[in-house]
Write a structure and sequence with these properties.
601 residues; mainly beta; 6 helices
Length: 601
Amino acid sequence: MMEWKKRQRPALGLGVFILVVLLLVAFPSALQGRILSDSEPIHPLPADVSAAAFCDSVTEIPTAECQALVDLYNWTNGDSWTTKTGWMVTYAPCSWYGVTCSSDHVTWLLLNSNNLSGSIPSSLGSVSNLKSLRLDSNQLTGSIPRSLGDLSKLEILALDSNQLTGGIPSNLGSLSNLTYLSLSWNQLTGSIPTSLGGLSKLWFLWLSGNQLTGSIPSSLGSLANLELLLLDGNQLTGSIPSSLGSLAKLRQLWLHDNQLSGSIPTSLGGLSNLVVLGLSRNQLTGSIPTSLGSLTALRYFYVHYNPLSGALPQSLKNLALDRFWFHNTNLCEPPDAAFQAWLASIPNLQRTGVLCAPTATPTPTPTGQVSPTRTPSATATRTPTRTPTRTPTRQAAKRAFLPIIMKQRVAPGPTYTPTRTPTRTPTRTPTRTATPRVIFSDDFNDGDLAGWTPNGGSWSNPGEYMQAAHTTVGYNVRSETGDNSVYEGTVILLSGNAAGLIFRASADGTSNYCAVLDASANALRLCVNHSGAYLNYYPMTVEYGRPYRIKVVADGSKLDVYLDGVKRLSAEDTRYTTGKFGAYIRNGDAVWDTLEARALP
């Protein structure tokens, strides 16, 4: 009997083992749910596993928001994303790449330039606390979901540089908190919804490079905070609405490469902050309004390739233009010396070369004599010679602005002569507010770079500023360290791609947050590690030789960037909490002056 029991035990153990294996095969999810905690990694979900099945184990955000993120991953070929850290690998979506949460809700979704392909899921409309949605510079197809119009807290919507089709959903006009809308460089069709005129907080509207038709809605003239309006490269028809002359804060107006007709509205002369006016390659007729001579901030004026006619108005002499293109029109130039001298002063001029016929001065008639009636002779109108001109691309034209200061060059590189404002002695009023601690301050008047450690590039101090040149990437890092602080300085890009400030940086500068003037991207960028992900960007024309005052406020995870005293960028990121301050240069020449860092109270 004993021998029988000993022989049977191995067979019983084998049977139990086989039973366990069968259970694992039949009920894998049940067993997995018992052995994995929320913090333990799991394998990526198979394609046939639903979002609901995954999100049952997620507790840090609402199930609907989790399901929307899983849908986005599945619908846009998440396995092929450039960066997908954490996605479908942990039950903590707030730690996934590109996802930022606040108060148990997803608030930022930044997946730009990340090789997303496929369509945008409509379930994203359920991420009700979303403030920033950036899916630009990918390969997305299909239409823009109408459900995005339900994101009532959305401030930034960037879907540009994809392959999206269909129309612009009219309910995007209900996003009352929207400040930034970029749908450019897609294949969108249909008209511009009039409802967009209700976006009262909008300062940036970019719809360039689509196939939009119809007229420009006059309702866009109600966008009181709008600073950039870019509608170029579409198939828009009709006239330019006179209501655009009400956009008091407008700095750039790009309407070129459309099929617009009629005359240039005289109301545009009221745009006192306008820097760029692009009307070229349309079917505009009539003359240039005299009122445009009131645009004293205007630097870049394009009207070429339009059947405009008449004389250039004398009022244009009030403008300090850096670029004026009116070639391939029927416009003529006043022949007087003063006007010709003004034209000659414009650094980048493309003209018709046609002089207006001089106005005949009547000869005084002696008293008692009858002046013979003179029939005015017909003056032949010279049609401008349409010499084939290689016109820069639209993107290149926006990057090619080059003020007169670029003529002031001393070998081996460009130089900068700073303008010093006389120091005023302020009236000191007793205050109980603590003065912020100055971490460092350098006006470079000492002629050296003590306290700075360069890493790449050629850095120097000619006496009153810091200058650098580099063919790839260079940093110059201060010895001091700061966490919650204000860091500001004057940055001047003289040539090349980009220059700016770095903060919370490593000792060699390579790990950092950066606020960068990027001429190659036409933007002010708030970025991580300069060439890595950028957290936010402000589209602008970066002018060579122009001094820009950049200020960064880093307070915990909240990062704000100010340009010339106006807050342009905000983001939240937790990668770096402390580090050093410095300067950054990429493929160019630049100047820095009066740099200072202060600790936040």
